Amino acid sequence: MNPTVVALWAPRALAVLRIVAALIFMAHGTQKLFGFPAPASGNFPPMMSLPWIAAIIEVAGGLLLLLGVMVRPAAFIMSGTMAVAYWMAHAPRSPFPVNNGGDAAILYCFVFLYLAVAGGGSWTLASLRGTDAAHAR
Q1: Sign of CA pseudo-dihedral 38, 43, 45, 50
Q2: What is the C-alpha separation between 106 and 9, in angstroms, rounded?
Q3: In this structure, what are the phi and psi dihedrals at residue 18, rounded to the nearest 5 degrees?
Q4: Averaged pLDDT for residues 115-132
Q5: For a surface tag, which of 15, 41, 68, 114 has the fewest beta carbons within 10 Å of its beta carbon?
Q6: Which InterPro entries does the entry link to (predicted)?
Q7: CA 17 to CA 9: how far, in whole Å?
Q8: Residue 85 in contact with residue 32, Cβ under 8 Å?
Q9: b/e map of 15-32 (b: 16 or more CB within 10 Å)?
Q10: What is the pLDDT of residues 52-87, one digit of tens each?
Q11: pLDDT tens by residue, 11-50
């Protein structure tokens, strides 16, 4: 592939990954907190419980990623949240992710870890404001 094309499109592809991951991740949080876009299975999590805190991180962190603001710290926290979710909720069921339902948690963990290192790519609110030149590349 042409290096010029790669240099042009890599930050944009990173931005698309960030935006799509943020939107899907936020949907998990809004489902837990508000029953949207579909009602959660069971009751809403009690305030200050681990599922409630996770939902707050999903909504707030997802919004930060979506907008491209504080991408690195938000993604780092979200990555850790998914690691904790995997080891607390999924791994005890089975050592195999395909059997324990933890596939998405693992993927989110590593996608967010990558974003914590790589930044938000193009199309960030921070780059439009000129406060985050490193993420605008």
Answers
A1: negative
A2: 26
A3: -60, -45
A4: 87
A5: 41
A6: DoxX, DoxX-like_oxidoreductase
A7: 12
A8: no
A9: bebbbebbeebbbbbbbb
A10: 999 999 999 999 999 999 999 999 999 999 999 999
A11: 999 999 999 999 999 999 999 999 999 887 778 999 999 9
